[in-house]
Design brief:
22 helices; 600 residues; 8% strand; transmembrane; alpha/beta; eight-stranded parallel β-barrel
């Protein structure tokens, strides 16, 4: 076993740097494309089903619809194809390493595409599901860890596992995958390296592994154990450093939320890197087994995986292909940032946090300072109120009369924007914010683009007001259709918004929960006072594919109650506290609490 581990290390070292670069860039580009496609298909299927949101109540009916089934099949086939291309690249790198040849990323990519094209020509479609099974085996622990950190998926998995008979079916599926997967561990080598057809490749894999598969399985377990242990240790050190920094530098009221958010992002990066290294290590072990078990006649035994020092790296090609892939990935990720979230988890019913009128307990309401504070408190949304000045400029302000916020007994509608922006709307809150002014919606959109989602409430200015159309026009001008939702107490405003921009999500603000307003075609979510929310109302709205936003939820008891009722969005004056309560079972108080909270 020790000898095999040493040989695995040797074969990995030959082209490890180039392989890791190829894997990282390939997964970034392919992953962003795949997730963007999945997001688009989800939205398309939701639209075909007449739903705005996917919830546990309507999930069964949604997945049984023909368009949904067809989209899932398309995603599975595409995912399997992308895995096959990746596998071709990995085998290219290790095939070269077995003969002590260093290659660059261009050769790895060419080998990935060439080997996949050869399999398509041979019509070896069976490799696609086999590749998915192999990926599940290699990255099973990492995938489960990732899913357990994504709350909608975690919730869905918990619900499925609680269903009668599902654990038994999953156990049977796992056994079947092992029966299929273990004897077929070297099929990709037989097909992509020896150019055998799939059936012959299966027979070749079984021949090579006859009586030797327990040793190979033990090697894979040992390699994965060593690698995952190292990753866990590194992550624990990172969490410790984060906890110390948060304790030293973050304000107490946001410390738990800051640590939670920081560690979630760090863990996502660690899981991404870990999945690449685990895949590389597993295929390194399989390469050792393949060449030592079956290729001795073509090479002196034992197979020597060490690299002669005379070989050199083609740095020019390596740098060129790396730069090209990096540029493509940066472009796609930039597109994701500037055009809204790549995947909108609110579609799956994840509870999100909205800062009321910006972070109105930390800065003057409906100001740019309040929006900045909402970002600092890591709110998902900021709720803002908009009206129009006398000259038709859309601005942020809740009251029609400015006496409370500006100390002047004047109507906002009677002032031009130039007159309105001269008023001080910060001194009433604190001397620290003296001189804070009324911002235009355009300024707010420019500030929040790519940083913070907005729930824009249209104040009721009467049937003749052009506020709905002007608001939509500004959102389109800044390209923030995916980043904004619009709400109002006036249903006709929402209808006009939908007619002007059907893709914008709209919310009906209800003073009381009477009737089935959530079934209206112009309403994607309802926004209601938290004291009026009941489980029956939430379930009815979810069954209709609509979300439930509640306001204004500030106390711990109310936040916990809303979490238990399963609402989709909480509008609160305390975003950091809300995140701490919603996303952690207990509020951490000490450094040890922080560490346990993140490492458990």
């Amino acid at each position: 076993m020790t000898k095999f581990i040493i040989q695995t290390n040797e074969v990995m070292k030959v082209n490890l740097r180039q392989l890791v670069v190829f894997e990282a860039v390939y997964r970034l580009v392919a992953g962003v494309f795949y997730v963007r496609l999945a997001d688009g298909l989800l939205r398309f299927c939701l639209d075909r089903a007449g739903y705005s949101y996917l919830t546990m109540s309507n999930m069964r009916e949604f997945f049984l619809r023909p368009w949904t089934a067809a989209s899932i099949l398309l995603l599975l086939v595409l995912g399997a194809f992308l895995i096959a291309v990746e596998t071709g690249g990995i085998l290219t790198a290790y095939q070269a390493a077995a003969y002590s040849r260093r290659i660059d990323c261009a050769v790895i990519l060419r080998g990935a595409l060439g080997k996949t094209w050869d399999e398509i020509q041979k019509k070896d479609w069976q490799l696609l599901p086999l590749g998915m099974i192999g990926t599940l085996f290699m990255n099973g622990w990492i995938l489960m860890r990732a899913f357990s950190r994504i709350r909608p998926l975690d919730f869905i998995l918990d619900e499925l596992l609680a269903a009668l008979g599902v654990p038994f079916l999953l156990a049977v599926a796992a056994v079947l995958m092992m029966i299929i997967g273990i004897p077929s561990m070297l099929v990709f080598f037989a097909c992509m390296v020896e150019q055998k057809r799939f059936g012959d490749g299966v027979r070749r894999s079984r021949e090579l592994l006859a009586g030797k598969w327990p040793a190979l399985l033990g090697l894979l377990l040992a390699v994965n154990g060593i690698l995952l242990g190292a990753l866990v240790l590194i992550y624990a050190v990172i969490v410790l450093i984060c906890a110390l920094l948060v304790t030293l530098f973050a304000d107490a009221y946001v410390s738990a939320a800051v640590l939670t958010e920081a560690c979630m992002r760090l863990e996502a990066a660690a899981l991404f890197v870990g999945s690449i290294l685990v895949t590389a290590a597993d295929y390194g072990a399989l390469t050792v087994a393949y060449y030592q078990f079956g290729r001795k006649k073509e090479h002196a035994a034992p197979w020597d995986f060490t690299l002669p020092y005379s070989l050199h790296v083609k740095r020019k090609w390596f740098l060129r292909i790396t730069a090209a892939f990096a540029a493509a990935s940066v472009f796609m990720i930039a597109d994701m940032i500037y055009n809204g979230s790549v995947f909108d988890w609110s579609s799956l019913g994840q509870a999100e946090i909205t800062a009321h009128r910006g972070s109105s307990r930390m800065a003057p309401e409906n100001t740019l300072a309040a929006l900045e504070a909402a970002m600092e408190e890591m709110a998902d949304f900021a709720e803002i109120d908009v009206q129009m000045t006398e000259d038709g400029v859309v601005v942020l302000c809740h009251d029609t009369n400015l006496r409370r916020v500006a100390g002047v007994n004047k109507s906002l509608a009677g002032l031009t924007f130039e007159e309105a922006e001269k008023l001080d709307v910060g001194s009433f809150f604190s001397p620290e914010f003296a001189g804070e002014r009324i911002p235009s919606l355009a300024e707010a959109l420019e500030l929040c683009g790519g940083r913070l989602k907005l729930n824009i409430e249209l104040k009721n200015l009467g049937a003749d007001s052009s506020l709905p159309e002007k608001t939509v026009e500004l959102i389109r001008e800044y390209g923030m259709e995916e980043q904004c939702v619009i709400s109002s107490v006036r249903l006709s405003y929402l209808q006009r918004v939908k007619e002007a921009c059907p893709e914008l999500r709209t919310g009906y603000i209800l003073p009381a929960a009477y009737g089935r307003y959530y079934e209206n075609e112009y309403v994607d979510f309802i926004s209601i006072r938290s004291s009026l929310v009941t489980r029956r109302l939430v379930e009815a709205a979810h069954e209709a594919g609509r979300a439930v936003h509640v306001w204004t939820v500030n106390s711990r008891a109310d936040l916990e109650a809303m979490r238990l009722l399963g609402v989709d969005n909480l509008i609160t004056d305390y975003p950091a506290r809300a995140r701490e309560i919603l996303y952690e079972e207990t509020a951490p108080g000490t450094l040890l609490d922080y560490l346990w909270m993140q490492l458990r």
